[in-house]
Structure formats: C-alpha cells, structure tokens
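DATA CLASS: polypeptide
GOAL: derive structure tokens

***
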Amino acid sequence: MADTCVTLHVERGQDITIELFMDKTPAAASEVLSAFREGYYDGLSFHTCARDEYIQFGYHDINGYGVYAADVDDGASEGADKDAALPYEAGSLALVTSKYPYLAKMQLAFLFTDKPIFSGGREILFKTIGRVTEGYEYAKSLSGAKVDEDLSPVMPIVVKNVTIKE
C-alpha cells in the first residue's frame, strides 16, 4: 500500500501537505484518512497552539473549535494501538493518544520538536502517522499565534477543506 498525501487548505493562509504512513501505521493512518474523506476536519479550527512545540486540531463543537474528548462518550481511536510505534520528530503528523479510553478522539497534531511535550505536568502522548511534506514553515508559524490562557488561538485558524492524492 503506497503512502497517501493529504493537503489541508487553511483559510486566509497557506496549504499544508502531509504524507500519511499507510505502510508503517496502516490501522491508524486508515482511520484518519477515512475521517479526511468524510470531511470530518473540514471547517475545523486549530484549537491548541504551543509555540515551537505543536499545533492541534480534532474533535470540534458547533463553532469549529476543538473539544476535549472527555466531552463525548464514544471511545478513542481504535487504530492507534494496532500499529508499531514510530518515533516522533519535528515535522511529524501525530495522532494524539492516551492510556485513557475517553481521550484523544481523532485529535491530530503537527509536531515541531523532537523532545517530549508536557501539559499540566503530564506528558502528551503522540503516535506518529505521517509527516509534513510541504508547508512546514507555515505550519510551525501557526504555533506562534496569539493565544489565550488555554493556548487557543485568539483569531481562529480554520482548515477550510482537504484534498487527497492516493
């Protein structure tokens, strides 16, 4: 199975193209690809921007903002546990994972560091499922957006839609 490229078209911004590791992480990458195909991430805002560490998007409310997975009750992504673990590094696209079944909910993050990332004193767990192939510098610049005390961007950064190339 060849790797698949997905381009995120960001409103009032630049495109970010990612390569999903369909061969290395087939279960998780397939789940995320299905979500992209179904338009799950269309119109969604990045809800966390941590300067030079990561930007995150995923489960969203009616306003397009990310919602903690604990606010919904239908279980975490099943594919994350089926694939071999790959190290994450700057430029990785990662599924945010958790040892708690109610967390993660198809949350994706672009990573800009090779070091562990902490929030609230706990390490955030990531599963690498792809990498940025175009638009890395633009994506990293989004991590420096003006944010509120919860690291949510003051001005929404919206993924208008995606294009898939298989």
Q: What stands out?
A: Residues 4-165 form a domain with the Cyclophilin fold (CATH 2.40.100.10). Residues 64-77 have pLDDT under 50 and may be disordered. The radius of gyration is 14 Å.
